[in-house]
Design goal:
mainly beta; three-stranded antiparallel sheet; Cu-Rt/internalin_Ig-like; signal
Length: 121
């Protein structure tokens, strides 16, 4: 599990520069219904916003997923955890308004589409 998180952390490494433009990461498929995303930044961050939106129409009041998400930042890592399990469908994870401790900002959002399949027991 730790190896998988480390691979995802490398995959999600974001670079803070003044010339960063919008970036769309490769889609992820067969994502677990309880997936916790770990995003690693190149520098320690002081603030960041993350949203997860279900593009299949089943959303909460703010357009996000039912139950919302918890965003926890720790130095240069941010974890995004669903409050309730993801339902089968297609989602967009979006990282916005990231600011490093040194004041550099992520100029444009970073997005990634992911697909959650039916649960199997």
């Amino acid at each position: 599990m730790k190896k998988k998180i480390a691979i995802l952390a490398m995959f999600f490494t974001l670079v803070f520069t003044s010339s960063v433009s919008a970036k769309t990461l490769e889609p992820r498929y067969n994502v677990a219904w309880n997936k916790i995303w770990t995003i690693t930044f190149s520098q320690p961050i002081q603030e960041v916003e993350a949203t997860v939106t279900n593009i299949n129409g089943k959303t909460g009041e703010d357009g996000g997923i039912m139950g919302g998400i918890l965003v926890d930042k720790n130095n240069n890592k941010v974890t995004v955890t669903p409050v309730l399990s993801y339902q089968p469908g297609t989602y967009i994870l979006k990282i916005t308004n990231a600011t490093a401790i040194n004041g550099q900002k992520l100029k444009e959002p970073v997005t990634m589409q992911f697909v959650v399949n039916q649960r199997t027991h």
